Amino acid sequence: MASDVLSFIYDKEPHVQVRRVLIITGGLILIIGSRLPWISAPVLYGVEGPASEAIEIGWEGSGYITGGIGFILLLTGVFWKGRTGKRYSIPSAILATLAVLVVVGCFYRILEIDPNGGFLRATDVGIYVTFIGGLLALVGAVCRTPVNQGKQTPILLIMVISSGLMLALLLGRVRTASPSLEPITPHAVAADAQPVVIDTDMAADDWLAILYLLGRSDVDVQAITVTGAGEAHCSAGTRNALNLVALAGRPEIPVACGRETPLEGDHAFPTEWRERVDNLLGLTLPENSREASSESAVELLTRIIQGSPQKVHLITLGPLTNVGELLEAEPGLVMNLEMITVMGGAVEVAGNVGPPSNSENEVADWNFYVDPRAAAEVLGSGAPITLVPLDATNYVPVTMEFYRRLEKDRTTSVAEFVYRVLAAQEEYIRSGSYYFWDPLAAAIATEEGLATFQEMSLVVVEEEGPESGRTLESERGFIIRVAMTADRERLEALFLDAVNGRLP
Fold first, then answer.
1. For the stretch 28-42, what's the b/e string if a residue is b when 16 or more beta carbons lie within 10 angstroms of its beta carbon?
2. CB–CB of 54/87 below 8 Å?
3. Of the candidates 148, 113, 108, which has an alpha carbon nearest to the alpha carbon of residue 127?
């Protein structure tokens, strides 16, 4: 064997010598690179951990593929003797190309996870070593060289079969990582299900909250209204809502558009935020053939709430513009409401408006800040209200640990879409600035023991200024049930079960 190797390396045909050296060297480099770290785990995931977390045989098992390819190419370069005629080494080229594609796929995935930082800071040496090894082997494989026709059929057959297996494995990984999104078969709504109406501004966390509610058989979502004064513009938000309910297998749920402006004032979400959610963070959903309701948001809310034989639970996930306008026009509707669960406000904690709004406001949350008058109208309506402010949502950050759990536990198209939403927001998750805001409100509306509560007399500051939208305790206020803490572990378990269709 040693003499054969030496004879190959010092072959009298220079083309043969170069090709074999390149293929052998490329195979060795592929094997070595596959065992080196491919990523910087603390940078990409925002967590510290042992080196093994960054290796994982390449990254997420990709090194098993590239290492196997390297081993086959190494054996090929050593044992494949020349034959007459000139042709390319097609099987070797296929194998080397597969190795390069695996690495390119990892680069693309890293850019999806870390779009701002890019792969230069998120990658480690192994991914580059592996890429170079694949390129060297590919160059060697496509060199034209004299070859001898004769006794090489078994080796060629083995290489073709190996190439096919590697290709199947690669395609299988791609399909597993990014399955197509198809509407799921929804739960049958229970006969005694609570009728629910959702008012939303169709931000990304709203999508998660809506899908959670649609994953419960004890919740009967009867309508969705979109406020154009929130994060999404009304037309885009309405279309996204229609497609979202289609994904959940409930395309018949009516969706209506509301006001494009607050009841008062001109506070607005940053333009770049609105464009991102209008465009669904670059993601896609199944198309709903139904159109938005011809009714306005207030008209749809009025019809559903008045016509329900049971009291309706109204869940608000954005600025309260639509609901404020509704209760101004029809104050008697509060008698038909079981509860209004409101995600908004900051009672004993700092707000979250700050620099993005170019405002000095440090005390309001976005939902109340955008339309303080509407918030004041709702809290002062006399309706039974459960407020889920930042005080409670601060207890439920979306963690990298949860993200990894979801990555491994996504058995439905809904769960897959949720995973893609979080992947698109991963820089915020890593930084600790992304929370289950609206999903917590939705979950509290369905699970009483999920939070601790305190009754408080509250008002909302309506006046323009650095405290506009602030939620204050006041003797002049109205008694509101306020969520103060929340159980993150229980929320995570409920959410995973809901989006994976495991709730009864």
1. bbbbebbbbbbbbbe
2. no
3. 108
Tokens of residue 254, six digits:
């009516």
Q: What is residue 113's predicted lDDT score, i.e. its pLDDT?
A: 66
- Count how many residues are written for the chain: 504
Q: What is the CATH number of the domain that holds 251?
A: 3.90.245.10
- Residue with the two structure tokens 């994953």: 215
3-state secondary structure 137-186: HHHHHHCCEECCCCCCHHHHHHHHHHHHHHHHHHHHHHHHHCCCCCCCCC
**Residues 222, 173 share a domain:** no
Q: What is the C-alpha radius of gyration for the chain, rounded to an integer number of angstroms?
A: 29
Q: For residue 133, give its domain range.
A: 2-177
Look at residue 183 and tell me if it is in a domain.
no
45/110 same-domain check: yes
Same domain for 158 and 207?
no
Q: Are residues 151 and 226 in the same domain?
A: no
pLDDT tens-place string over residues 404-451: 999 999 999 999 999 999 998 988 998 899 999 999 999 999 998 999
* Cα 264-268-270 angle, rounded to 5 deg: 175
Count of domains observed in the chain: 2
